[in-house]
Amino acid sequence: MTPSGGESAATGVEDLLRTEEITMNFGPVVALRNVNLHVRRGEVLGLVGDNGAGKSTLVKILTGLYKPDGGRIYLEGEEVRFRSVQHARQHGIETVFQDLALIDDLSVYHNLFLNREHTRGGWFRFLKNRTMRAAASRFLDEIGVDIPSVDAQVAKLSGGQRQAIAVARAVRQQHIKILLLDEPLAAMGAKETSLIIRLIKSLSRKANIAIIVIDHNYTHLFEICDRINVIQHGQVTLDKSLHEIKLEELVEFMVQSFRRQIATGDAK
Questions:
Q1: Domain spans of the chain?
Q2: Which residues lie below 8 Å from residue 115, measured CB to CB, with a gap of 6+?
Q3: CA distance 208 to 75
Q4: Which of 115-119, 195-199, 240-244 has the highest mean pLDDT?
């Protein structure tokens, strides 16, 4: 376990986010048991695990949707207790779930400013469309998102472009420190996958934020991530940087774990 002050004992580098002994139960079902996880600024951490392993529950705790039954969360060395999703956002934590939460009938730039529109006027407010359009175009250029036009309807974009817009909207928020991505590469072709991989890598470097990615495709994670955590039965069972483990070794680790589950009767 790393010190509660937020510094990794192994590297001496301060952790941006760290959890200690996080537990979560749903009635008699133990979803998380004593989860210790950490991620540094500018680092991309991959979360691997079978369905029901506890990944989504952990993400929902980090986003303020669930309150853990036990354990502590540290952000920049200070203990935090998120009261809601909005409270977690105020601390700089943004999430992009699989549904993306985009409005198909609106333009790209209206989606980027959704619920944070620029307006003018007194009693009757008017949208400052020209200002938002220009700001959206500049921002997407800065982070390397290539789309036909910021005026395009989101419904007419490809899956990869839609994912890129959802990610862009999240990182556009002020004071963002941590971005959580739930299956960002699901059901995408090679070209779209490449687009999102480049975007994630660019954001971790340029924006200097921590990114946590959940994905079932190990090959994708090895292209994106700096470090891999495996969650099994509500616990982190492996924590390795990509310098310490190869793709084949991760696959073998997961296969051996599954075989042990079968042998003990724990596999579903």
A1: 17-103+178-264
A2: none
A3: 15
A4: 240-244
Region of 131 on the Ramachandran plot (φ > 0 left; ψ -120 to 50 alpha; else beta): alpha
Q: What pTM was computed for the model?
A: 0.86
Look at the domain 17-103+178-264 and name its fold.
Rossmann fold (3.40.50)
Distance CA 84, CA 87 (A): 5
- Beta-carbon contacts of 165 under 8 Å, excluding residues fewer than 6 positions away, are 102, 108, 111, 112, 145, 147, 154, 157
Residues 123-182: tens digit of each pLDDT: 767 889 999 999 999 999 988 888 889 999 999 998 899 999 999 998 887 789 999 999
DSSP label at 147? -
Q: Name the amino acid, one letter, at 231.
A: I
Burial of 153 (0-12, 13-18, 19+ CB in 10 A): middle
Q: Helix count (H) and strand count (E) of the chain?
A: 8, 12
Q: Phi first, then psi: what are they for 185, rounded to 5°?
A: -110, 15
**In this predicted model, what pLDDT tens digit does every residue of 64-121 receive, in sequence order?**
999 999 999 999 999 999 999 999 999 999 999 888 889 999 999 999 998 788 887 7
